[in-house]
Amino acid sequence: xxxxxxxxxxxxxxxxxxxxxxxxxxxxxxxQLSLPAVALEEAADVGGTWYWNRYPxxxxxxxxxxxxxxxxxxxxxxxxxxxxxxxxxxxxxxxxFVADRYDLRRDIRFSTCLVSAAWDDTDARWQVRTDRGDELxxxxxxxxxxxxSLPKTPDIEGTGRFRGRVHFTSRWPHEEVDFAGRRVAVVxxxxxxxxxVPPIAEQASQLVVFQRTPNFSVPAHNGPPPEKRxxxxxxxxxxxxxAARWSRGGISYEMTDVSGVTATEDxxxxxxxxxxxxxxxxxxxxxxxxxxxNAVSNEHVSEMIRERIRRIVRDPETAEALCPKDYPFGTKRxxxxxxxxxxxxxxxxxxxxxxxxxxxxxTEEGIDTTDESFVFDxxxxxxxxxxxxxxxxxxxxxxxxxxxxxxxxxxxxxTYLGLATSGFPxxxxxxxPGSPSVLSNMAVSIEQHVEWVADCLDFMRRxxxxxxxxxxxxxxxxxxxxxxxxxITLHPQAxxxxxxxxxxxxxxxFLPYIGxxxxxxxxxxxxxEKGYLGFQLSGPSAQQCNDGVVRRLQPDVSILLQMVEALxxxxxxxxxxxxxxxxxxxxAAMRPPPPEVGEVxxxxxxxxxxxxxxxxxxxxxxxxxxxxxxxxxxxxVLGDLxxxxxxxxxxxxxxxxxxxxxxxxxxxxxxxPAPVEDALAAVRWISANGVALGGMPETLAVAGWSAGANLAxxxxxxxxxxxxxxxxxxxxxxxxTDSDLSRPSYREFADGYMLTTAMMDWFWEHYADPSxxxxxxxxxxxxxxxxxxxxxxxxxxxxxxxxxxxxxxQALAAAGVPVEHIxxxxxxxxxxTMVDVVLSGAPVRAQIAERIRHFMPAxxxxxxxAAL
Length: 868
Ligand SMILES: Cc1cc2nc3c(=O)[nH]c(=O)nc-3n(C[C@H](O)[C@H](O)[C@H](O)COP(=O)(O)OP(=O)(O)OC[C@H]3O[C@@H](n4cnc5c(N)ncnc54)[C@H](O)[C@@H]3O)c2cc1C
Known about the structure:
Distance between the termini: 54 Å
Shape: globular
Strand content: 15-25%
Helix content: 25-40%
Bound molecules: flavin-adenine dinucleotide
Structural class: alpha/beta
Number of strands: 29
Radius of gyration: 31 Å
């Protein structure tokens, strides 16, 4: 039970810090690889979380069928869980059983803290020191030190003064604590607070719960392990585990395609009730497919949970105080409870809402708030953890060049895959920041990390590498990806511990990776398959570095591309023109409802060969507004006013301009120059009639996307040559500027990024004869560019048209035209038009709106930015 007390062996292959779920498995893997290792553990025994958090009511919140090791079917056979959500003693016993089964304790030094570790470049080893005076060297340092293992000290005045008993849920005594007949305070209502309140209420004569932030909680419906899961597991253990490993959260559950925005009230309620019935975290987190991104959808779930609370808690004021209202559901870790809300109906239980009466100080007798003095026999602090980064930066870890981890992470953690960090060779963080970790079933995430590290160490040994360290490029790319994933969710809105917001002074950064266990596992595998992409490996006789970024696409774009691929949509160029148009329209119609604007009105204007349809989008602000004539995309062949409707609305709202989207004749029925003639006629007519439309014609700009941007650019050149109409600016979104398809982006993104090179060929065939493709009215890049209106040119990083858009921006600048170039990082050609689908496009569109104000100064003050 106490581990070895003999001196620790120097020069080990690895030192593992921690002997919880992670440390135990890491140690076992190292032993299986015959790599000498030792684990250091502050606690007196194995268990980690389950060693320390012994408070009454402590349980897991992932069903035990899944919150368990899966690497060895034999231990799965040998151990059976008694409950759906096991109690702390049972989980601790399980980890003890695993430690015994593999005789792991002999390699664990208990009651021993790692206090410092310094990388020594000269012999490529870590110099490790413990609080017991041990000094040893090792090649690899594996931090299995937990994400929720460093308790947060309560930031309350006078905590040391109290003369009664003090307990921390995260450092609970081993002997039973008897609360019978006692006056007890519980401070904190996070997961631990919610678990500890009901059992204490059963014993105490008086219980006062001090709540700063109410928490969303739903019933656990604990009982025997769920029959459905047990059956599935027994029917095919391998398939069950495989599904969990490749699921979004590390536990398989049914994903829905029901949107909380478009579902009927009946469907919404039905789905919610089913989730409540299931009593599982991921069920309530997945009531709707969009609740993590969409505030409206999220509010439906939030409000249904609040309704439940109001139904349960009899005192309306207490019920209201228990209802979370200032952060979206799921952005703080939701809880599963057993009779938590019911407990507040007991006569001896009281809730104190610290937002109404804050704590002034802990006193010798109890707690003083601004309104009352309370006397207690016991105070229980359930005040949480310095999560994820705390246990890592709390240790004095010094990497290359004397930089400590604390210094490097002063503004937030920076990791590659949440597993490693540059400047700290041979240093691994199990479930570190930047990995799914606390957002997942951690048993699954831990196994994946441990196995990845073990495979990596084995690879290094086989190939003769001594050190491994991520490159700055790879790490910066991963950090960006982690941020991109979080940015499209509602998470950044909450002051949660996921955001580091519970610890004063901690950088406010979203810590875990929210892209999903499945997506994450794929990225980790890809890194290995690409020769440890983004890692620098060195050895006495070998060096290897395949530098690069593993995920450059925006996360929602990536999902979209996967969905399109899965749908098996035929290539446009394989279809007849009519079928292609129908497909184009159908895919636009599948998008969610577009954003609201002040007014949308359809009309017609005279064109050279008959009337042209237009659609006007008026902002809700008072006019007159600057005018913007917009031409839709679709390769001069496809598209209409409907297909670019959402983008026009978004432009009108964000930039506060009157957008007039014009329908023009299409090829092949009307080949070049018909679309150009229509576009020109439309701009002239709108300029002449701008006042009647409610616009300011002197600020008329033209805009377009793709082939529409080609028309906009061409119109600018013709208007300049004609001397009229005056065009104040041009907004060219992913423009076609040249008929030369030999630029590198046509090869790099030829296929798989929505617009393909083959599709562009098809469009050109329909639009213009090869003999005419050098005409500047077809290829504006070949025209004279001096004297053109100021331009905003947007290109997509993953767009075959990227290089010609960039070439146009550069040529405009060289010709003395004021030009702003915006590169839509991680985006494809179509991202910009998919307003409510590709949420990561919102910052790009916000940037566009901000830039076009330069050439379209509005009379009215700029509107508040539209929600991203
Ligand atoms: C109350 C509670 C309930 C939870 N329920 C769930 C759940 O249901 N499902 C789920 O997926 N996750 C849950 N978690 C998260 C839980 O932490 C993980 O599931 C898992 O137990 C983590 O295992 P670990 O080995 O990585 O870390 P830990 O279990 O935290 O173990 C880390 C160990 O490292 C030791 N250590 C840290 N620093 C040092 C140092 N410098 N020197 C020496 N030793 C050190 C600590 O003493 C600790 O024992 C819960 C967490 C808490 C607090």
